[in-house]
Structures are given as C-alpha cells and as structure tokens.
Amino acid sequence: MSRKFKYSPEIKVKACEEYLSGNYSILDLCNRYDISYKKGTCSIYKWLSIYMESGAKGFFYNTQKNKQYSKELKLQAVEDYLSGKGSLRDISAKYRIKDSRSLRSWISLYNANKELKDYNPKREVYMAEARRKTTIEERKEIVEHCIDHERNYKETASLYDVSYSQVYSWVKKYDANGEAALIDKRGHHKTDDEVDELERLRRENKRLKRHLAEQDRLTELLKKAKEFEGM
Hints:
Blueprint: H1 9-20, H2 26-33, H3 43-54, H4 71-82, H5 88-94, H6 100-111, H7 121-126, H8 136-148, H9 153-160, H10 164-177, H11 197-229
C-alpha cells in the first residue's frame, strides 16, 4: 500500500516557485498551505534545498514507497557534512534524503563510533533484538518525529534504531496523556508515603511475614546448634 503524503509534489513545487518569485514570504506560504511553522523553521526550507538542487523533478522521486539508504550513501553524506561541504539541508538535498533529521541521526551515530548500516526493516524494526533502552529526551524526540512525518512508525523506528512496537506504544501514550506518559516507570518503587492506606497495610503484612520467617529460621538454627553441642 502506498503512503499518503500531506503535501503533494505539485504543492511543494508551487510553494518553492512562489517564494522564489518574491511575492510571498516563508510565513505567508506556511499560512497559505497550512504548513507547520515551529521555532523559526518549517518544511519549506527543506523543499527549497531540493528544488535548488534538482528542480521540480526532485519532488517526484520515490514518492510511492519508503526511502531506503545504503551504508555507503549514509557514510558519504556524513563525511560531506563534517568536511564543511554544505549545511544539513544542502547535504540532504544533494543525496535526496527526505529529512535532515535523518542525516543528523547518522552524524550522531558516526561521532559515537557506531556503524552506519544498510536499511533493513526486518532486522532493525520488527525483530526483538532491535529494542534498546532510551532516555525520556530520546522518546520525546522520536514521538515528535513520528507525528511530524504522518505517523510513519516503521521509518521512525528504523531512523532511531528502536522497534516498531516501541514507537507505536510511545505515540499512543503521548496521544492519551502527553509527555508525562513517556516516562519509563519500570523499576521505580514508590515509598510508603506515596501509596494509599491499603497498600501500606499490605507492605507491613509482607514485612511482618518475612520477619516471622526469619525468626523461625533463627530458632531452628539455634536448636540445631544446641543439638550439635550436646553430641
């Protein structure tokens, strides 16, 4: 099944041409085409890089399937950026990378001496081995990326080296309860002051049982010690 794109290639071309004509500002075009404008940036900047690099035809490549990138392409793009051959947008346009955040992720992996791998959705997305521990900051970034890209869980999972199920779960939790839902509470043990009266009574009962069991074991040991001494 082909993916649905929020903005067609025709709209992207039109937005670029209207901006370059000087008749509209970036903010005008964001309002005109209902494009998100966050922290002084938006998708139009990326479209302009693609348009300047390849013209209108740059928007008609690989629009019906998820983009795949080889290990060699990733490495070349990273090395070009680190060599100062262009900005994130420039390098992304040059190698037809759909989102500069993908390139930023590869740069982070490269700087951390981690291997850049060929795209393999079965290994990197669906297999259990792909699961890894993440920080709350990473989960926020992953969820934001997924939502900003039409909730493409598979592509997001591949980009951030996590599993499809992780991304899907985090996005659903975020939808229901916001950022607070992304906090991993596994391993967190609430103190007695943080639980209700019933839970406190249960805990006290368990502690009492453990104490009595330890007393019974001690009594049994003393008994055996006396028997041993009397032999």
